[in-house]
Amino acid sequence: MQSVNMKPIDNILSIQNLSKVYKSGHKALTDINLEIERGEILALLGPNGAGKTTLISIICGIVNASSGRVIVDGLDFQKNMQEVKKRIGLVPQELMVHSFETVWDTVSFTRGLYGKPKNPAHIEKTLKSLSLWDKKDKNIITLSGGMKRRVLIAKALSHEPSILFLDEPTAGVDVELRKDMWNLVHDLRRSGVTVILTTHYIEEAEEMADRIAVINKGEILLVENKKDLMQKLGKKSLILELRKPVKSIPKSLQSYDLELKKEGTELHFTYNTHEGHTGITGLLEDLKKAKISFKDLNTAQSTLEEIFVQLVREST
């Protein structure tokens, strides 16, 4: 029996048994099932060719699926295509903007394409949030690559979508713009917008995402809360700074997961934090028996990048 205090999960996007096979026979996506909650930030991670862009393109109506369903805010995409598209904003990888239009005109025009009435106040707010207000009368051709990227985001937000897709949003942009965009995404989430981003920058997922989905070879490997994923798959390293360098790990210590680094001056011991017995006590005793002394020790947590690489390697 469900508790009366339990809040039901509100899924704004439901992807059901979605597959895409091209005429060449290439399977871009295989039986994708994914539920995305309203107001969350989901990072879709995967190597080149994993199927990230294909998946987004199908959800946004750019590419047709071979089979499966996409439900957006309770509406079947195929049966309610025009209504669903009004609820979705997409920032593509390519800098596709009309070069000779002004920033104001192109963003306002995009809003009109979705059947939305004119709303200068919303356009102004959007441009100011992206540091584009002082560029509003500039022709896009005169802008830098980073500013053009901001224009793409403004266009995607012009019709006030409830779901925003960011396909590699910070590829090729400087660190300052990347941080500005992180702040913008957090602001959007606070306003109730659901954000799905694909990225090659693992630190981007660590900084922004609530959940992580890992895709490889057209299949979803896992979908996890970011913190849970770090705890489940993350390992810790005990880093021992040795008093004297050693050339190799003695046989008496080879049962431990050890690695010599920095020309034998550091000994790294990898262990699982969720196992009752980490092996640290035994290692320290065996180091003493082997007459290996250390002057300092530290611990380091596995990064999301290391976890991602491990997952992809296991799936190949």
List the helices and strands and how they pair.
Blueprint: E1 11-21, E2 27-37, E3 41-45, H1 52-59, E4 67-72, E5 75-76, H2 81-85, E6 88-91, H3 103-113, H4 120-129, H5 145-157, E7 163-167, H6 175-190, E8 194-199, H7 202-208, E9 211-216, E10 219-225, H8 226-233, E11 236-242, E12 258-261, E13 266-271, H9 280-289, E14 294-301, H10 304-315
Parallel strand pairs: 3-8, 3-9, 6-7, 7-8
Antiparallel strand pairs: 1-2, 1-4, 4-5, 9-10, 11-13, 11-14, 12-13
Helix pairs in contact: 3-5
Written overview of the protein:
- This protein is of the alpha/beta class.
- It folds into two domains: 218 residues, P-loop containing nucleotide triphosphate hydrolases (Rossmann fold, 3-Layer(aba) Sandwich), CATH 3.40.50.300; 82 residues, Alpha-Beta Plaits.
- It has a six-stranded mixed β-sheet with strand order 6-7-8-3-9-10, sandwiched between helices.
- Helix 3 runs parallel beside helix 5.
- It starts with 10 loop residues before the first strand and ends with a helix.
- The relative contact order is 0.13.
Number of strands: 14
Shape: elongated
**Strand sequence of the main sheet, in spatial order?**
6-7-8-3-9-10
Query: What is the helical fraction, as a range of percent?
Result: 25-40%
CATH superfamily of the largest domain: P-loop containing nucleotide triphosphate hydrolases
Beta-strand proportion: 25-35%
Q: What integer is the average pLDDT?
A: 86
Largest sheet, described in full? Answer: 6 strands, mixed
